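Notes from the 1:1 (GR / supervisor)

We went over the backlog. Supervisor wanted to see one worked example end to end before approving the batch request, so GR pasted a single chain during the call. The sequence is below; no edits were made to it. Supervisor asked that the structure be written out right there so they could see what the output format looks like.
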Amino acid sequence: MNDPGNTLSLEQLHKLHSLTRDLAASSQKQLRTHLETMSPLLRPRRFLGDYMEGAGREPVAASERTWADFQSLYKKIAVKPFDLRPELPNPLPSIQTQIALYEWEYHHSVQTGRGWQDIKITSPLSWVLTYASPYSLSVIRQQLAEGHQQKEPEAVRAFVLRACLMGTLFQKFPALTELLSAMRYRVDIRTMRELGELPLVTISAPFGTFRPADELVSTAAGFAGGSAFSEIVDVESIRQLRDPVREEALRILNNQGEAA
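Structure output shown during the call:
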């Protein structure tokens, strides 16, 4: 947690929320444009080859080993915590490469005068990247909530399978991460406690967000219904942005003895 969060007033928090919302909208729009341009690189057949249905044959080196590894990953994740059938058809049915971006979410407990309060926190400048499916990330988490009885296995299966495909794609092709990093985005493969070991590819803007002090989070969440809060942008991280291209050019100039 950043120190500025301990001294924010409600008025300052409101302004920062407005700023964060505008930055998030702009950043996500730009990211979507980049990802749509990259869509040919995001095809699962790039690593599964003919183990996924598609037009024509598409042999891929080492696809047999990759398919075995993918089956093992899916089997491990499908059974726990999703309670899905571990078997996969061969070949896999083709999926559309339409992408979906979901804000990163986590739960945070704050202590209030009435006891502990569980609040859903979103990170508006970090997104989970996956292929579009019937269920969103939020719905999947709700479906796994304790005591929920309305789970639709095929919709859950679609989300889990697509997340595994995207995670495997980024693991098999690290150049995708390098390409997005060159555009200043940070790429990670993370997990959520509720979703077990399901690999989630996350892409974050080059400037960060933070969660302010618990008391302020609880108060602000109360205004919004009491159970949700969105992190706010770290303005200083924007001011400290660096240009890696400029820095590399200056390094080369300095190595050549030229005046920077």
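Supervisor's comment: The radius of gyration is 21 Å.
Batch request approved.
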